[in-house]
Each structure stands twice: as structure tokens, then as C-alpha cells.
Specification:
The protein has helices at about 5-10, 25-40, 65-75, 110-115, 120-125; strands spanning about 20-25, 40-45, 55-60, 80-85, 90-95, 100-105, 130. With about 130 residues, it is α/β, with parallel strands linked by helices. It starts with a helix and ends with a strand. It is globular and about 40 Å long. It contains five helices and seven strands. The strands form two sheets. Strands 2-3-6-1-7 form a five-stranded parallel sheet. Strands 4-5 form a two-stranded antiparallel sheet. Strand 4 (about 80-85) and strand 5 form a beta hairpin. The protein has a single domain, classed as Rossmann fold (3-Layer(aba) Sandwich), CATH 3.40.50.
Length: about 130
């Protein structure tokens, strides 16, 4: 694999694990976000949206840490159960691995904060990218 985010996205495409892109700060996170959109990934508003679009990325916030962690643990199993807070029901979805490319985007300081709370996103994710 090369050393840029575009090569990382190619590596994640078609994989059975979601990748994680770690930005050093908000500025770099915006650059990663722009490059992912240029590569055809759509920005998901929540983890539920990650399975509605086969090629997507999700920018993690402190509030979404548990949902993201749960998603990362379930994604490789072939079935992801997600509670949709808007409709107040749970739904089980199956990823389409052949057509998918899922990337979790997080800033380095937020990753450390979330992992200190017990949500080890790095161990739950597949390939990782950091510039």
C-alpha cells in the first residue's frame, strides 16, 4: 500500500472490515474528508447510514463512540444490528462486502479520549491510516 489516503481507500474497498483514518487535527480531518468524497465515498450522518450506501465514511464524535464501536465489532460478522434512534426500532442489515468501502474518520486526540472510556476502536477496525 502507498502512503496516501487514496491508496488506503483502495485497500479498504471490498474488505470485510471497516478501515479507520486517524487525522492529527481538525484541519487534516477536513482534508481526509474532502479526499474521501473525491474518491466516491459519501459522508454518513450516523452509523446507520454506513450500510445504506456501499461506499461511505463516518466522522466519529464523542457522542457516537459507542455506536461506532458496536458497528466496527459487528461489521465483519455479516450482520449489523443498529438501533435507529429516529424511528425507535432496531434493524439488522447485511453488508455488501464486494461493493463496499467503509471508513471511520477520527481525530487522534478524540481517539485517545474514546479509548480511555473503553471503546477500543483501533482493535475493532480493520486497516488503519495515519499520515
Amino acid at each position: 500500500m502507498g502512503n496516501n489516503i487514496e491508496d488506503f481507500i483502495k485497500k479498504v474497498a471490498g474488505g470485510r472490515e471497516a478501515g479507520i483514518a486517524i487525522a492529527k487535527d481538525a484541519e487534516e480531518a477536513e482534508i481526509f474528508s474532502r479526499r474521501m468524497r473525491e474518491q466516491g465515498l459519501q459522508k454518513a450522518e450516523n452509523v446507520f447510514d454506513l450500510l445504506r450506501c456501499p461506499k461511505a465514511y463516518f466522522a466519529v464524535s464523542e457522542d457516537s463512540a459507542k455506536d461506532t464501536y458496536d458497528f466496527l465489532l459487528q461489521y465483519p460478522t455479516g450482520q449489523v444490528e443498529i438501533f435507529d434512534k429516529a424511528s425507535m426500532h432496531s434493524e439488522v442489515l447485511s453488508p455488501d462486502y464486494e461493493r463496499s468501502a467503509i471508513v471511520i474518520l477520527i481525530e487522534k486526540n478524540l481517539l485517545a479520549k474514546i479509548e480511555a472510556k473503553g471503546f477500543n476502536l483501533l482493535s475493532a477496525a480493520g486497516p488503519a491510516y495515519q499520515s
